[in-house]
Amino acid sequence: MTTDAVGRDHEAVSQFVESFAAQLVEAGMQRMPARIFAALLSSDSGTLTSAELGEQLQVSPAAVSGGVRYLAQQHMVAREREPGSRRERYRVHSNQWYEALTNREAVIKRWEHALREGVNSLGPQTPAGRRMAETLAFFEFVDGEIAQMMERWRVRREELFGAD
After folding, report:
1. Domain of 48?
2. 115 in the same domain as 79
3. Which residues contact 53 (CB under 8 A, 6 or more apart)?
4. Mind listing the pLDDT tens digit for each residue in 74-110?
5. What per-residue confidence (pLDDT) applies to 65?
6. Neighbours of 131 (CB within 10 A)
7. Long-range contacts of the stretch 39-47 (C-beta < 8 A, 24+)
8. Number of structural domains the chain divides into
9. H or E stretch including 49?
10. Of 58, 71, 84, 123, which one's alpha carbon is 20 to 30 angstroms from that of 27?
């Protein structure tokens, strides 16, 4: 058993990373971004370089780059330059789930707009128009619920962990 400075078993951490990544993949995330996200989430600093991620996950720099690009687009990680270096570090947001869900609101708004156009072009009284209207109503409902839930989470997070 190989342990780090605080006594963690490297094999157990690796097993956690792969297990959590598998859960993320099952939920629809791509495999490499899921592994990278789990590795970042499980690091004490919440940051790792491309080389550190590659070494830990036993993958190429290209695989890390592609996975990080996806995670950055999803607002789940941020790229940071090391001071005085060209090397980048990748940081998992401390409130990554909040960021990811909040940024979904823009997508939902675009879907609502497209669905509204669909209802108008199909006609709200047609079977397809009615189905489209029901889908639109669902996304409008979800959008409102997410906003309320995120506000409740901000309050709860502050109660549990204090202000940033």
Report:
1. 10-92
2. no
3. 36, 39, 40, 59, 64, 68, 90
4. 888 988 887 787 788 999 877 767 766 667 777 888 9
5. 94
6. 13
7. 40/77, 40/90, 40/91, 40/92, 41/92, 41/96, 42/13, 42/16, 42/17, 44/6, 46/91, 46/92, 46/94, 47/80, 47/89, 47/90, 47/91, 47/92
8. 2
9. strand 47-49
10. 58
User: What's the CA gap between 149 and 101, in Å, rounded?
Assistant: 10
User: What CATH number has the domain bearing residue 29?
Assistant: 1.10.10.10
Per-residue tokens: 15: 């097993």
Tokens 């996806």 sit at which residue? 70
Residue 139 tokens, joined: 């996304």
Q: Both 88 and 142 in a single domain?
A: no
